[in-house]
Amino acid sequence: MTQNQNPQYQRRFNWIDQTKGLAILAILIFHFFQNYPERIQLISILDRNTAKLGYAAVDIFFVMAGFNTSYSLFSKFSKLDTQDIKINWRSWLTKRLGRIYPAYLLAGILSCLLYYLFSNFKIKSYINFVLTFLGLAGIKFQAINPGFWFFTVILEAYIFTPLIFQVCRNQPKKILWLGLIGAIFTKIISLYFLQQNNIPNYLFFLQNNFLGSYLFQFCLGIYWGFIYAEQQSFRKIDFIISTSIFSLGLVIYVILGITKINIIYMLGFDILFTPLFFLGIQALLCRLDKIAKLGWILSFTSMLGIYSYQIYLIHQPLYFVFLHNFNNSLQANVYLKIIMSLVLLTILLAIYTFLFTKLEKVVTKKPLANMSK
Q: For the chain, what are the domain ranges?
């Protein structure tokens, strides 16, 4: 097979980096209010509402992971039918793991060092500690950083990618249906455990522990990666269907809100909302990219996206260590404390990310790898 050298497949799309930049920014804001020590009414309100942004942002990350996977695969063999594509999955998986593991291990080591220097760090379970460094702890057995659950699930996604392609025979529509059916089945299991008041199993299947919680998002990304590689754009039908199911979800959401029924985003609204969220962000960013005055803002967003994986891995330990201590040491108005804490954490995170990426480059001696390339 001859690799396609068409320039349209070699260029980097700004909207991809910018989308991941917006997603990591939403997660940073959500985790700030989630971990802010003074639970005044304003913080509680912001925590609840930014949580919705955080959940949606994680969904976008999984769509991007699937999108980049299929786009990069298909773009190499664009002249062939997808069913004719033969992929060396062992080589593909080795490269993926080689890109995501170094930063993860480095983040784990530096997080432990951060805790040791500025907080009380004790290993409560050596088994969980080992599982964490292997990337297999999820959130249930996490010994360092609960945010590391993301690595466990993205690891599962990459490990199961060859199986997804083999079962569906490289057919995009089958992959999309597989993701949808698998996701609905997972939601039903979650709902069953909720009705049985089995909260541990309910939370396990709901989110943060295994691929089933994000299978639809990942397979949707794979599907659209094929479409975009072939069309170099999203189709009108993609927007029509996404808008229709979003509208349906919004109507249900409003009805549940009016009747004061507890709304759980991950019990199905993620499936209804994510497609339009993703397409809407992409369409908006492509339009904004043409406005010269917004260039510096979009460049900053792109930079966040390029380092989104590294930022995700290191930001929460920084919050855990400094946010509580800094807040206690301040003698100021409660609202001024929020502003000052936010400014300080932003500066510290920028410095930490810069140093982390430089150290990662030294450790790997390779160009910095992105989470979902």
A: 7-364
